[in-house]
Amino acid sequence: NAGVMQNPRHLVRRRGQEARLRCSPMKGHSHVYWYRQLPEEGLKFMVYLQKENIIDESGMPKERFSAEFPKEGPSILRIQQVVRGDSAAYFCASSQPAGLNEQFFGPGTRLTVL
Amino acid sequence: DAKTTQPNSMESNEEEPVHLPCNHSTISGTDYIHWYRQLPSQGPEYVIHGLTSNVNNRMASLAIAEDRKSSTLILHRATLRDAAVYYCIPYNNNDMRFGAGTRLTVKP
User: Are strands B102-107 and B9-13 parallel, antiparallel or unpaired?
Assistant: First the structure.
C-alpha cells in the first residue's frame, strides 16, 4: 500500500509563473490536507478537502492560491503569479473519513521561486 | 485553538530515556493530544495520541496530566534515528495546528 505521494519533489519557478503541486492520497483515504512550511518554522495548515469539496480553507491566502480534489485524480494546490515569499515546503496529508484519524504525510514539494 | 508551549530544543544520549514536555493549559475538553515528529527533510509522521489516560505504543508512551493541561512524550530508549522535531498538537477537528515543536538531538 503506497503512502501519500507528492510530485514534483522539487519545483523551481520564476516570479510571476504558476506552480502546480500534486498530491495522491493513500488508498482508501478521501480526506486531503495541505500545509506550508517556511524555513526553520513549523507547518501551517492551509486547506482541508474531501472529494469535490473544500471543507476548510481558513489557512489559505485569499489571493493567488487555490486547491481542488476532483472525483478522479490527485489533489492539486495551485499558486498563481508566484512571488519569492511563496518559497517553502508544501506538505500534503491524507486520512480516512471521519473522526480523529491519524494524518499520513507525503514527502513534500519544495518550491523555490527565483 | 489551544496554545501549546514546548522547549525549543532538547538533547539526549543514545540508549537513554527522553521526556519531552508540552504545556497546553487552554486545551478544551474534547481535544485529543496528538504528537507528531518530523525527521530532517521529511514530512511529519504520527507518533501517538491520547485523551485522558496514559497511552503506549511501539514508538513511545504518552503521559497526560490529570488536569490535561500538560503531557509528556516518553521515548524509552533514544536512538540516533529519533533525532527530529517533535510537535504536540491538541486536536479535535481536521485542521491540526503545528507549533514550533521541540528539536531533539541524540548524541552517540
Answer: parallel
